[in-house]
């Protein structure tokens, strides 16, 4: 059986899925990741799915479960690189992956994670200033 | 160009999770041959993946036939068959969120949304046969 | 099987006798219905090429157009059909170029001789097969042409533009049907990947009306963009459209909407400045 490698980058775990996932591999990854989050005290998990040409409900459920587990373990999960055709298909399938953070690529995911970790960070207030003159 | 049955069917037994991966690959190849757009390829492969997993998990295994069909347009037909317990309440099984196996209950209903034709023949004790078609646009 | 091996050999022989004269007659007969819309030289070139591959295929013992020796002949016929479809000739005008080979041959057969008559009829049947093939490849070419044009029109009417570094937008103008909405969705999402933009704006100022299906497509686009890690805003919802959306009971939920494209862009730039702590840069 294939096993998806989990890399550690500082306090972030990086998983780059490069194979067409069989269900057992998917379940194995879910277990591996939970163990590694605990063992390494990682604060963030990035799952790069840019190589996946489909995501079905089984993989979708795995992503949701990993996000939920990592939240319990005080880590954030960001799913990156979903292809447009895959995203369109998932929406049609009915899977919106609520509560999962996403980013276009690994670099942006790292930004998301560092923002989440920065305790001083306050979400920007969306102060719409509609009395201001329109932008040129 | 009449109701040509199309190319020869490829048959794949479904008895393990690796077979589900093989079904996906067969359907992808057929979808490329049938000149489906990338989005439509992705939709039919995803639908086939959902249904093949059901064949494995609930049907206790079975087989899948994949073929390119050519009529006015070209398309891919996927037929799944198992001799499992069958589905008693089909309407219920086709409802979003209904699952007896701790899944998301989106496989059957979602697969139906992803394809152009969806036929299902099932009854308790008589197994389940599903046929789907996705046409090139 | 249209011809026996012997017949195909005899047909090749017959085509070869006095070939220059045969081709000339064929060109003249084929040219008549085209009434000067195809130059004589062009037609001569096409017929000569067709003549060449036909004789070659018959020499190889072709008994049926769909059999292997007919490969090149099929390609030449398909080419001919495609070219004519593109030049605007009708299917009949195209097939007639093949059928007139019968006329060219009929002048040379002694139909009182039963053996020759039988051959002549078999040749005719075979030429019918060639003509039918031309007909069907003509319609296939025609359909392809129409599909291509429809797609080009769609692309022209849905330009996805990079508004700013990290922001792509699609200003929609005109009636949005379901097919077009779908194309917009795919192109916009692909643009997010190609430009690495985390923001997209769909501006519907120029859209006169929105039905349930189109609204659903827009909603799905927003959700799909989110799955990819991008945020999608909708701008330019006119009051009538807002009313329709509410009347149809469509939930726009937590999707950001702005009155104008400028408002949407301002919103996005403020957000991204807050995110990166830096300034967004305009596109050069
Ligand atoms: N081939 C089959 N044989 C018997 N029962 C089936 C079969 N396929 C589906 N079912 C029944 O229909 C229900 C719904 O199937 P569906 O694929 O929609 O959801 P699921 O497999 O439970 O979850 P998901 O596919 O979202 O992970 C299943 O829980 C099962 O009870
Ligand atoms: Mg299922």
Automatic annotation (TrEMBL), chain A:
Under the heading Pfam families, the entry gives: STAS (PF01740)
PROSITE patterns listed in its UniProt record: STAS (PS50801)
Give the source's domain of life in one word: Bacteria
The record, for PANTHER family, names: RSBT ANTAGONIST PROTEIN RSBS, RSBT ANTAGONIST PROTEIN RSBS-RELATED
Record-linked InterPro entries: Bact_StressResp_Reg (IPR051932), STAS_dom (IPR002645), STAS_dom_sf (IPR036513)
User: This chain belongs to which protein, by name?
Assistant: Anti-sigma factor antagonist
Which residues does the UniProt record annotate as the domain STAS?
A: 2-113
Automatic annotation (TrEMBL), chain B:
An example Pfam family from this entry, by short name, is HATPase_c
Domain (Histidine kinase/HSP90-like ATPase) ranges: 39-137
The superkingdom listed in its UniProt entry is Bacteria
Q: What is the designated name of this protein?
A: Anti-sigma regulatory factor
Natural source organism: Pilimelia terevasa
TrEMBL record, chain C:
Q: Where is the STAS domain?
A: 157-268
Q: What is this protein called?
A: Polyvinylalcohol dehydrogenase
Protein's UniProt keywords contain Zinc-finger: no
Q: CDD domains from the entry?
A: STAS_RsbR_RsbS_like (cd07041)
Native species of this protein?
Answer: Pilimelia terevasa
Q: Does the keyword Phosphoprotein apply?
A: yes
User: Which Gene3D superfamilies does this UniProt record tie to the protein?
Assistant: STAS domain (3.30.750.24)
Keywords noted in UniProt: Phosphoprotein
Tell me the Pfam families matching this sequence: RsbRD_N (PF14361), STAS (PF01740)
């Amino acid at each position: 059986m294939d096993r998806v490698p989990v890399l550690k980058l500082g306090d972030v775990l990086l998983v780059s899925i490069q194979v067409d996932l069989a269900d057992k591999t998917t379940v194995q990854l879910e277990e591996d990741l939970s163990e590694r989050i605990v063992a390494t005290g990682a604060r963030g998990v990035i799952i790069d799915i840019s190589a996946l040409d489909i995501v079905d409900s089984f993989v979708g459920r795995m992503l949701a479960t990993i996000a939920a587990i990592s939240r319990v373990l005080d880590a954030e999960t960001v799913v990156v690189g979903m292809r447009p055709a895959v995203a369109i298909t998932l929406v049609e399938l009915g899977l919106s992956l609520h509560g999962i953070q996403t980013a276009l690529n690994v670099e942006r995911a790292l930004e998301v994670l560092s923002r989440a970790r920065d305790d001083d960070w306050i979400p920007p207030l969306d102060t719409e200033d509609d009395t201001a003159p329109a932008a040129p | 160009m009449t109701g040509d049955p199309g190319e020869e069917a490829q048959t794949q037994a479904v008895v393990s999770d690796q077979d589900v991966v093989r079904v996906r690959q067969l359907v992808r190849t057929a979808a490329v041959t049938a000149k489906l757009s990338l989005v439509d390829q992705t939709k039919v492969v995803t639908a086939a993946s959902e249904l093949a997993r059901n064949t494995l998990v609930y049907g206790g295994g079975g087989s899948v036939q994949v073929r390119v069909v050519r009529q006015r347009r070209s398309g891919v037909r996927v037929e799944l068959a198992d001799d499992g317990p069958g589905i008693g309440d089909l309407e219920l099984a086709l409802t979003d969120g209904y699952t007896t196996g701790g899944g998301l209950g989106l496989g059957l209903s979602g697969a139906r949304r992803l394809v152009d034709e969806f036929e299902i023949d099932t009854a308790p004790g008589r197994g389940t046969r599903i046929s789907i078609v996705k046409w090139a646009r | 099987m249209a011809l026996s091996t012997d017949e195909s050999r005899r047909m090749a022989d017959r085509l070869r006798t006095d070939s220059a004269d045969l081709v000339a007659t064929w060109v003249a007969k084929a040219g008549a219905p085209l009434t000067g819309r195809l130059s004589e030289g062009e037609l001569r070139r096409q017929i000569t090429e067709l003549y060449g591959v036909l004789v070659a295929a018959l020499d190889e013992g072709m008994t049926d157009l769909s059999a292997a020796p007919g490969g090149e002949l099929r390609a030449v016929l398909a080419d001919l059909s495609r070219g004519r479809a593109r030049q605007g000739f009708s299917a009949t005008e195209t097939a007639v170029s093949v059928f007139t080979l019968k006329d060219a041959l009929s002048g040379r057969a002694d139909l009182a001789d039963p053996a020759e008559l039988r051959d002549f009829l078999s040749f005719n049947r075979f030429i019918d097969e060639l003509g039918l093939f031309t007909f069907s490849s003509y319609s296939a070419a025609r359909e392809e042409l129409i599909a291509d044009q429809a797609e080009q029109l769609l692309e022209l009417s849905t330009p996805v533009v990079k508004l700013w570094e990290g922001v792509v937008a699609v200003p929609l103008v005109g009636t949005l049907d379901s097919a077009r909405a779908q194309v917009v969705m795919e192109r916009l999402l692909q643009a997010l990947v190609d430009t690495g933009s985390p923001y997209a704006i769909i501006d519907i100022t120029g859209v006169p009306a929105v039905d349930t299906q189109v609204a659903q497509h827009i909603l799905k686009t927003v959700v799909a963009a989110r799955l990819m890690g991008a945020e999608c805003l909708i701008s330019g919802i006119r009051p009538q459209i807002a009313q329709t959306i509410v009347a149809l009971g469509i939930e726009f939920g937590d999707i950001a909407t702005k009155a104008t494209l400028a408002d949407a862009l301002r919103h996005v730039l403020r957000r991204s400045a807050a995110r990166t702590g830096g300034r967004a840069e305009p596109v050069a």
